[in-house]
Amino acid sequence: MVKESLKNFCKYSASDEELFMYIRTNAGEWNEESFVKMKELVREVIKDYENEDCYPKIFINYFVLNIPSIINILSNFKGCTDEELRKGYTEESYLSMIAERIKELKKLKLEFQNSLWS
After folding, report:
1. Which of 111, 116, 114, 39 is nearest to 70 (CA)?
2. Going by fewer Cβ within 10 Å, which terminus of the chain is more open, N or C?
3. Domain coordinates in residue numbering, the chain
4. Among positive and negative, which fits the CA dihedral 47, 44, 14, 110?
5. What is the pLDDT of residues 5-18, one digit of tens each?
């Protein structure tokens, strides 16, 4: 039986708002709402599957393919878009925010890895 948290994660993962897809299709533009939603959904799946022997493949693939790809794309950001400047970011503040999001993604990946051993 598929758990509700996984259904929600799969729905998000297949949407245009999924973080990796959004960044790729919007020329590297950051989407904070998608990032927050992804973290929330991932943590719900981890919690719901904590007593299971394994995670579904689609969930594992997200950590093997998407998370590293997002980190790689963000690591190559060299500045911010005009849209980000209009939102009030400076080049420095935007790159600082991106660096923080990279740390959070690495932390999330570590949470997933640690959940494999608990």
Report:
1. 39
2. N
3. 4-115
4. negative
5. 999 999 999 999 99
Secondary structure of the chain as H, E, C letters: CCCHHHHHHHHHHCCCCCHHHHHHHCCCCCCHHHHHHHHHHHHHHHHHCCCCCCCCHHHHHHHHHHHHHHHHHHHCCCCCCHHHHHCCCCHHHHHHHHHHHHHHHHHHHHHHHHHCCC
Q: Pull the structure tokens for residue 4.
A: 């509700």
- This prediction's pTM: 0.91
- Residue 49 tokens read as 């599957």
What's the rounded Cα separation, in Å, for the pair 101 and 74? 8
**CA 87 – CA 110 distance, rounded (Å):** 31
Tell me which amino acid residue 55 is. Y
Average pLDDT of 103-118?
95
Instruction: Dig out the tokens for 107 from the structure.
Output: 């932390």
Question: What is the separation of C-alpha 117 from the centre of its chain, rounded to a whole number of angstroms?
Answer: 22
Give the up-direction half-sphere exposure of residue 100: CA atoms within 13 A in the CB hemisphere.
Answer: 9
